[in-house]
Design goal:
It is a single chain. Helices cover 64% and strands 3% of the residues. With 272 residues, the chain is mostly helical. It folds into two domains: 20-141 and 242-266, no CATH class; 151-227, no CATH class. α1 runs antiparallel to α4.
Length: 272
């Protein structure tokens, strides 16, 4: 059994010059899309979030490395989730509010109206657009770079940033140790068999080794932080700098301009 696990905090680099998102400051990718994500919460039409969804997918496809995992997330999981949410919200819509629209499906006394589908899928597309905008930075930014940018540009106390980063690093570490423990149990023929009860028995056998490994890892991290005088001084020098360049400003300005243009063209608010 392979012991390789996916590390979400590993360094990511562009494999092509056109993949510009990897060269941007993590904060620029947050500031550029955050206003649009916030305003989309109050949008109720279908065209505006659909435009942002298409724009976000285009930016990711052009500016990021499109792996099989990323493609499955963007073009399979995200549409499937939006379809499920849209259908679910359509069933919850009060029929008396949309009974003036055409009926799409009728089962006995119950009728699914076109207006309910519009409301349900408008909500689903809005959530999908917000997720897609968040993925612009989420798929092209690592945890260490985000922490470094927050400490260097936002002046977040490094005690807070690096402590949170050390805690988040436990997740891939647990994944690696769990794979090692499973491989060791299989080599020794421990808790063999199949079925739900065998899985439960194997799961109980993983708890104690995982806890022991977590305690050992926490002790090593604490000793490493103490040996480097972590927290002894108000500031620390940085080995890896995450500068805020002119291209980051250009990206933010372009994002804000395009967002304002989309909201202006579709204008999803009805004035009295």
């Amino acid at each position: 059994m392979s012991t390789q696990t996916f590390d979400p905090y590993a360094a990511v680099t562009a494999s092509s010059p056109r993949q510009f998102l990897y060269a941007l400051n993590p904060l620029a990718k947050v500031v550029g899309v955050a206003p649009a994500m916030l305003v989309l919460i109050f949008v109720r039409d279908l065209a505006t979030p659909a435009a942002f969804l298409a724009l976000a997918l285009l930016v990711i496809v052009v500016g990021a490395r499109l792996t099989l995992r990323t493609a499955a997330l963007l073009f399979l999981a995200l549409p499937a989730g939006m379809a499920a949410i849209g259908l679910g919200f359509s069933l919850w819509v009060d029929a008396s509010r949309v009974d003036d629209t055409a009926g799409v499906l009728q089962l006995g006394p119950w009728t699914l109206y076109q207006g309910a589908l519009v409301i349900g899928f408008a909500t689903a597309v809005r959530l999908g657009a917000i997720i897609a905008l968040a993925l612009i930075g989420g798929l092209t930014t690592t945890g260490p770079d985000l922490v470094r940018a927050s400490v260097q540009q936002l002046r977040v106390p490094y005690r807070v940033g690096y402590t949170a980063l050390a805690a988040f690093r436990f997740v891939p570490r647990f994944g690696h140790e769990l794979a090692v423990i499973r491989a060791a149990h299989r080599v020794r023929g421990h808790h063999g068999g199949s079925g739900p009860f065998a899985r439960i028995a194997r799961g109980w056998g993983y708890i104690v080794p995982l806890l022991a490994g977590a305690i050992r890892h926490a002790e090593r991290v604490a000793l490493a932080m103490d040996s480097r005088a972590f927290g002894a001084h108000p500031t620390r020098t940085e080995r890896h700098l995450v500068p805020f360049r002119a291209r980051d400003t250009v990206f933010i300005v372009c994002c804000l301009a395009v967002s304002a243009a989309i909201f202006t063209v579709f204008f999803p608010w009805q004035l009295p």
